[in-house]
Write a structure and sequence with these properties.
Elements: E1 3-7, E2 12-17, H1 22-31, E3 38-42, H2 48-59, E4 63-67, E5 70-74, E6 82-83, H3 85-88, H4 96-105, E7 107-111, H5 124-132, E8 136-140, E9 143-147, E10 151-152, E11 155-157, H6 163-173, E12 176-177, E13 180-183, H7 189-200, E14 203-206, E15 213-218, E16 224-227, H8 232-245, E17 247-252, H9 260-268, E18 272-275, E19 279-284, E20 294-295, H10 307-314, E21 320-324, H11 333-340, E22 344-348, E23 351-355, E24 364-366, H12 370-381, E25 386-390, H13 393-398, H14 402-408, E26 412-416
Parallel strand pairs: 2-17, 3-16, 6-7, 10-12, 11-13, 20-21, 24-25
Antiparallel strand pairs: 1-25, 1-26, 3-5, 4-5, 7-9, 8-9, 13-15, 14-15, 17-19, 18-19, 21-23, 22-23
Helix pairs in contact: 1-2, 1-4, 1-7, 4-6, 5-6, 6-7, 8-10, 8-12, 10-12, 11-12
Bound molecules: uridine-diphosphate-N-acetylglucosamine (UD1).
């Protein structure tokens, strides 16, 4: 039962290094199975989701070790191709093990990742794509079983540019004979990072970052060393925290072009932002004002993962801020909690209207999901008095030291586990 206690009112000032990316490292941990040897991941963030993924790798027979930010996986001794429910249930993104294990062993059995705090989250696109690659897919009793004597390259057009489905196809297609072409593929930077990793491991993949990804083959090469890219959502969290609390913050080890939509929304709200090749400097002095509507879309559109974060920064902005959530069906669970702090937010379906209030007041809230929990921290920084965020374990799924980062900037954020 982790509790975060935030005392609002302090401006944030200073410099922080942004952590390695959760959404980039998770599919790469699954992809390490394809190397049949050693993978060394640098800049690997210490997250509960990474621990959950390492638990899966060990269950499958791999050896893993962590030394600081460096994680080593040896997948040579893989001895199982089933993932039990207790391990699958810890995080939704373990679904990429489906493509990776199928590619490595020709067979995989895992429990179906259930719905989660963001809604039902089906995997129909993943399964349809694996069938197109020649896998037999059987779904019974909450389990998914996939088998293929041989996988063959295919032309796959995704009905929606799903990040996880694109990653699963890339992984499975590495073991296919012939070429696989994915159209309407997700274009997120994390897809490029998976392509880089797989190519270093012996794959021939190109097109990541565009809507068409082509996988032409794979010859495993052990001994892959890869540096995990910077986390654009963790960076968005810190910029939104500075916007909410006021102050001047420099983020290091960040790729500004990957968070352009978030930065331009903050600029419109009145923040001063200067970017360099791998840094972002944000300054907020005066009052914030509502900007243009924020409409979540697949990359390069505004990320759904930053919707709650920006909303938390908008609560006191003059005027009305409008949000439209297009990616997930239930991604406004943070709204009720933000209202407890005095926020004036009305939702109808996919739309949320935030009417700026002059002040917020600390309260007891709960963190229903990872980004919703981080949104409570951001709102708490701009509230008067103490905000206690209960059941905040979700935050540690995706943030490595958000509390210490904010403390180093002068924020009063205390984590009690
Ligand atoms: C990934 C990210 C998550 C982010 C999301 C959207 C990881 C570990 N997680 O999740 O942080 O919020 O992208 O940017 O990288 N869908 C289907 N059928 C499918 C697959 C998806 O209908 O088979 C729907 C989902 O329900 C959702 C939408 O497509 O409404 C987007 O999902 P997807 O891009 O697959 O997200 P994830 O890969 O799960």
């Amino acid at each position: 039962m982790s509790l975060w206690t935030v005392h609002g009112g302090n401006r944030l000032c200073g410099t922080v290094k942004v952590q390695g990316s959760k959404n980039a490292v998770l599919p790469i941990l699954a992809a390490s199975l394809l190397t049949k040897g050693e993978t060394v991941l640098e800049n690997c963030p210490a997250l509960l989701d990474v621990d959950a993924s390492l638990d899966i790798l060990r269950h499958l027979g791999c050896r893993t070790a962590r030394e600081g930010d460096t994680v080593t996986i040896d997948s040579a001794a893989l001895s199982d191709n089933r993932i039990p429910h207790e391990l699958m249930g810890k995080m939704r993104s373990s679904v990429t093990y489906m493509g990776a294990i199928l590619a490595r062993t020709g067979e995989v059995r895992l429990s179906r990742p259930g719905g989660c705090e963001l809604g039902s989250r089906p995997i129909d696109l993943h399964l349809k794509a694996l069938r197109a690659l020649g896998a037999e897919v059987d779904e019974t009793g909450g389990e998914v079983y996939c088998r293929a004597e041989t996988l063959h390259g295919a032309y796959i057009n995704l009905d929606f540019p799903s990040v996880g489905a694109t990653e699963n196809i890339m992984l499975a297609a590495c073991a296919a004979e012939g070429t696989t072409t994915v159209t309407n593929a997700a274009r997120e930077p994390e897809i490029c990072s998976l392509q880089d990793f797989l190519n270093a491991a012996g794959a021939k993949i190109h097109g990541a970052g565009t809507s068409t990804v082509v996988v032409e083959g794979f010859t495993p090469r052990g001994g892959v060393r890869h540096r995990v890219m910077s986390d654009r959502i963790a960076a968005a969290t810190l910029t939104c925290a500075c916007a909410a609390a006021g102050g001047e913050v420099e983020l290091r080890d960040v790729r500004p072009e990957q968070m352009e939509t978030v930065l331009s929304a903050l600029r419109e709200m009145g923040c001063g932002i200067v970017t360099g090749a791998d840094c972002v400097h944000i300054r907020r002095q005066g009052a914030l004002k509502a900007g243009r509507p924020i409409i979540t879309k697949p990359y390069p559109g505004f990320p759904t993962d930053a919707q709650a974060l920006l909303m938390a920064a908008c609560l006191k902005a003059e005027g009305t801020s409008v949000f439209v959530e297009n990616i997930f069906e239930s991604r406004y669970r943070h709204v009720d909690e933000l209202r407890r702090l005095g926020a004036d937010i009305r939702t109808e379906g996919r739309v949320a209207m935030v009417y700026g209030v002059p002040a917020l007041y600390g309260a007891h809230v709960t963190a229903g999901d990872l980004r919703g929990g981080a949104a409570m921290v951001i709102a708490g920084l701009s509230a008067e008095g103490e905000t206690a965020i209960h059941d905040a374990g979700h935050i540690l799924r995706g943030y490595a030291g958000l509390n210490t980062d904010l403390q180093s900037l002068g924020g009063s954020v205390i984590l009690t586990e």
